[in-house]
Specification:
Number of helices: 9
Helix content: 10-25%
Number of domains: 3
CATH class of the largest domain: Alpha Beta
Strand content: 25-35%
Bound molecules: S-adenosylmethionine
Radius of gyration: 23 Å
Strand order of the largest sheet: 7-21-22-20-19-16-17-18
CATH topology of the largest domain: Rossmann fold
Distance between the termini: 52 Å
Shape: globular
Structural class: alpha/beta
Number of strands: 22
């Protein structure tokens, strides 16, 4: 029996027993539990909860019937507001422990819808011989197996209802063993499903897929190899895939395999917050590093500032430039493809002087970029992060080596019921 002291980054309860740390799935802070270990190492154990002897008042009944088995969510058993509090504590702990920094101000968390929010998802498809059926869904917890799910509470309800029907459709295809993945992109005017196919469709398969699209009002795209091979399949006259940022008068067309934020409501709220913190002004020169398809670049450009978007994917750089043109923002935007993990002081200097930076890296963070800051560094950096550990690591460089102050930081609940922590931090150099 142990008492849970806190939750870790993956939503597991942390306790101590026999001189070891024990990470217990399904247990919440303050709970007294018994557990069974499934991995034992010299300094720690991984375990699952057996019995809850004293229950947390924050515990709630998971909405999804597949919660115990599906790896798509890990925190549905914790009240949604308490999840945000946990994420905020994880952010503050990381900043303090890894970065040895403390924000002058903690920003109030940003919340959105907690159900049906996930407009992007990669669903696995497996025809399981032993069960003689197809499974479509996320992976099971800690497993490579596809979860046997009939429904999903975090996908938009229309798409969630299609999961068993997509499984049935796959059963009737000649290539049912050659279709490992369905990627979902819910736009404002069209719901796109990308079928990753390893073998060409037969004429009969085409008929089945077209009938499904007509019945359920979705558009299918096909992907034969890498993301660049994606092409619309049916119907070809569907509306374009896009999302909008009404506060900034911006519409973003995109391809279903492009990186876009998974939660469009939260994306709008995040954009408002980022623009308030960055406060771009006409006449300023601003960099948007890891710009993707221009999600931050174009709102910044709307202010009248000159913006350079820098991004590793040539496809996204091209899309960002097209989107700037689509929104009438070519005059004050430019884009460049560059591997930002290999940034050096010389390469950064070649980009010229910037007044401000917006940085939105992948989970690995932006270490080489922040290490490359020289004497001409911007006065303000707004850093959007999907990994508090790398944010904290980069914050240490910014604050302790590069002379910035961490003015504010806060969490944004981009991925409710999962352990992902999205956050934003504002650094200022006097
Ligand atoms: C978290 S996404 C942010 C994208 C964009 N800011 C948005 O909000 O849609 C991170 C971006 O970093 C890009 N990226 C990943 N590794 C990179 C690298 N080594 N150099 C430059 N960009 C990279 C990805 O292609 C992706 O577009």
């Amino acid at each position: 029996m142990v008492v849970i002291e806190s939750l870790d980054q993956d939503g597991r309860g942390i306790a101590h027993a026999d001189g070891k740390v024990v990470f217990i799935e399904g247990a919440l802070t303050g709970e007294r539990v018994t557990y069974s270990s499934y991995r034992k190492k010299p300094s720690y154990e991984l375990a699952r909860v057996d019995k809850i002897l004293r229950q947390s008042f924050m515990r709630v009944q998971p909405k999804c019937v597949h919660f115990d088995m599906c790896g798509g969510c890990s925190m549905q058993h914790l009240d949604a507001r308490a999840q945000v509090a946990v994420k905020q504590r994880i952010l503050e702990d990381n900043l303090q422990r890894i970065g040895k920094v403390k924000a002058e101000r903690i920003l109030p968390p940003i919340y959105g819808e907690t159900w049906g929010y996930r407009q992007r998802a990669r669903l696995s498809v497996r025809h399981v011989l032993k069960k003689d059926k197809t499974l479509v869904g996320f992976h099971e917890k800690n497993s490579r197996y596809v979860a046997d799910m009939q429904h999903c509470e975090i996908l938009p309800s229309k798409i969630a209802r299609l999961l068993p029907l997509l499984a049935q459709m796959n059963e009737s295809l000649s290539i049912r063993d050659q279709l490992p993945q369905i990627e979902l992109a819910v736009g404002e005017h069209v719901d796109v499903l990308v079928l990753r196919i390893l073998q060409a469709l037969s004429p009969a398969d085409e008929v089945i897929i077209k009938k499904f699209a007509d019945t359920h009002q979705v558009q299918f795209w096909l992907q034969t190899k890498g993301p660049e091979t994606v092409v619309p399949f049916y119907p070809l006259d569907a509306p374009a895939l896009n999302y909008s940022l009404p506060e900034f008068g911006i519409t973003m067309p995109y391809a279903p395999t492009d990186f876009t934020q998974v939660n469009s409501t939260m994306n709008r709220l995040m954009m408002s917050r980022a623009m308030r913190l960055l406060a771009p002004q006409p006449g300023e020169r601003i960099a948007d590093f890891f710009c993707g398809l221009g999600n931050f670049t174009l709102p910044i450009a709307r202010s009248g500032a000159q913006v350079m978007g820098v991004e590793g994917s040539a496809t996204l750089v091209k899309r960002a430039a097209q989107n700037a043109a689509y929104n009438g923002l070519t005059a004050n935007t430019s884009f460049s493809a560059m591997n930002l993990f290999e940034m050096t002081e010389e390469e950064l200097a070649k980009l010229g002087r910037f007044d401000k930076w917006l940085v939105d890296p992948p989970r690995d963070g932006a270490m080489e970029l922040v290490k490359s800051l020289g004497a001409d560094a911007p006065k303000r950096i707004v850093y959007v992060s999907c990994n508090p550990a790398t944010l904290a690591r980069d914050a240490e460089v910014l604050v302790h080596l590069k002379g910035y102050t961490l003015k504010a930081a806060g969490v944004m609940n981009m991925f409710p019921h999962t352990s992902h922590v999205e956050s934003i931090a504002w650094f200022e150099r006097e």
